[in-house]
Fold:
Amino acid sequence: MKILEVNALVKDFGGLRAIDTLDLVIEQGQILGLIGPNGAGKSTAFNCIAGVYPPSKGDIIFSGKKINGWKPWNLCKNGLARTFQIVKPFSSKSVLYNVMVGSFVNTDKKDVAEEKALKVLNSLHFEDKKDIKAGNLTIADRKRLEIARALATEPKLLLLDEVMAGLRPAEIDELVQIIQNLRDSGITIFLIEHIMRAIMALSDRIVVIHFGKKIAEGIPEKVASDENVIKAYLGDEYVVS
Amino acid sequence: MTHQNIKKFSLALVGIIAFVLPLVLRSPTYLHILVLLYFYAYLTTSWNLVGGFAGVLPLGHAAFVGIGAYTSTILFLQYGISPWIGMIVGSILATIVGVLIGLPTLKMRGAYFALATIAFSEGVRVMIENIDFLGPFKLNGPRGLLIPPLNTGLANFLFVGKEPYYYIILIMLIMALAFTYFISRSKLGYYLNAGGEEPEAAMALGVNVARAKLIAMAMSCFLTALAGTFYAQFTLYIHPRSIISLDLSFEIAFIALIGGRGSIAGPVLGALLLRPVSDFSRIYFGATLPGLHLVIFGVVLVLVMIYQPRGLQEPLTRAFNKLLDRFAVKTTMEDKK
Ligand SMILES: Nc1ncnc2c1ncn2[C@@H]1O[C@H](COP(=O)(O)OP(=O)(O)OP(=O)(O)O)[C@@H](O)[C@H]1O
Ligand SMILES: [Mg+2]
Structure:
């Protein structure tokens, strides 16, 4: 079953076409990787799907419903959660407080929200930091907090925007494991990542975009050896034919 | 004794002191100063719901004080309706106006929202100054309204001494504080804080930030207008410049920012620190240097913003907790003996 379908999506910023007739499909329970050079339009695609920007053209269908123009908070309530590439913690509040903001989506009761938040923190091996102010966390922990908050909303589909950037190898391995566990628990994952080792290991399929256009798609091995992809990343002159 | 118990105990102690204070302090001047101190603490606490928790900076709350004061006073003078009832009517009216103002303005960023609220409140003042009759209602333009101190008693919210006013505003303050405490620990409190600090992240987590802010605005306006009626009954004379002044709006914001915006104790601490400055500068320099208190506030605000951007409640809470630690350690050691 398709959980997300993007049909001929276009997003223009003034004269700049950040997304150009992009098609995407994610099957329930899959991990889809999205890669592309800097400025390719990956985060913009996420922002359109998560309701931050209305699409200029095209359709976005989530769980069988057309969600063009839906607001982020309504999408979240319907099971679509996301993290931000540039982390946005509620800095003056504790880790637990941050996560509880997410877990309040499905309850009005504080103790229920707290219990749910603690469960999420436990599953991410994060519970020992629950009373630390989010503003005092290391970058690795801030990324983890982004994931924790999103998970607390109990999503069906989770969009992760470069959650591994800036992490040390050991931290990356841990996060890869965590994401695998999430998929095993039934959450569908859409992942933007520059760290090839991680995205190759995790993704069922990978979509590559360049200047807002899809230039390749398929299983990781196929995409990695795709000529267009190599060109896009390294520039034409590096291609050895 | 545990920390929690000591905290509860000190809070109860402060409460008891506040309640017995008028028995000890017989001077009407001091009582008057205290009444105004609580009045400002109450106003700032009400302001804090939107100005503190929701992270915007309203600078026109005097308008809602005015709406409360004028509504209950007109109903009382022209129709003989008890100010207690007028108080509620005024607050409902203020809430409606607050929501109507909030709908377009709460989406604005920082300074624009502040400016919009100033413009609104000045608009209300100028309007009232230029209207003698609004339909059947006598506003009496710039001359204002005088409440004759006849038929005193609880039903008419009119008292001979200052003590009843003291207790009324004290109870109002305690209730407003309890209400803020309750809100800050509720879902709405979490949503307001989140939306104030990182609106984009909050929205992604399911928070309708604009709606949360609007609810906070409605509650804040309701509470603020209640104080308007209190002020009218206490001073027995209201006019546009006394009650819908930017001075009042600014003083509320000063108290909040210096005391600690978004905290529960902040508005009370701020009022405790700033009201005496305001009163004494008026008593001693009122004739020679009017407005001196605002200059002093400005200087204090700059210093506080540089050294304690989260307000004075933060270092004070920290100091209090340290004191508690010491105290708790000592008592547990004695318990063991
Ligand atoms: N809000 C905006 N207004 C105008 N232009 C924008 C906006 N957001 C993104 N862009 C532009 O759209 C293009 C795509 O940006 P986007 O952030 O989606 O790239 P990205 O693939 O996520 O890159 P990176 O790997 O660096 O995160 C860039 O040229 C960027 O400057
Ligand atoms: Mg990006």
Remarks:
- Residues 3-336 of chain B form one domain.
- Chain B has a mean pLDDT of 92.
